[in-house]
Amino acid sequence: YQEARKFFSLMAPEVQEIKAKLQEAVISSPFKSELEERWGSVYMNTAELATKIISPEVIADMQAENELTQDYEKIMAAGKVTFRGEELTLNALTPLMQSVDRETRKEAYKAYYGYMESVADQVYGIYDQQVKLRDGMSKKLGFKDFVEMG
Fold this sequence. Notes:
By secondary structure, this protein is mainly α.
């Protein structure tokens, strides 16, 4: 399963690049107005924007970003906490964090944030790397920063 996910996270940017080329063909088509009439202006605007955020220069960065996202997801999926003597996953803890009982919510949040504190260095490291990657991608694509690119 992990190998399949890794494969798809590496391939996704390449597929996105192919999709952007298709969108470029659509927005530069002599039939653009007819296509926009059929598919709507939102599609055309989205297609136009998509062509501005993908380039061969950022494919490797996008792949690295996907790997970091997977690392984060693994940390969260591995999260287990002890709640009232029972070991629970973070997902199993979620309904308890929404309980109508205030004390249950308080204990559940305390358990959740206890786990988050235990993995904070790893999570912050991932976020730091993502910020640097995204900033670098935005500059490679000619944007001032990632906010402008977004």
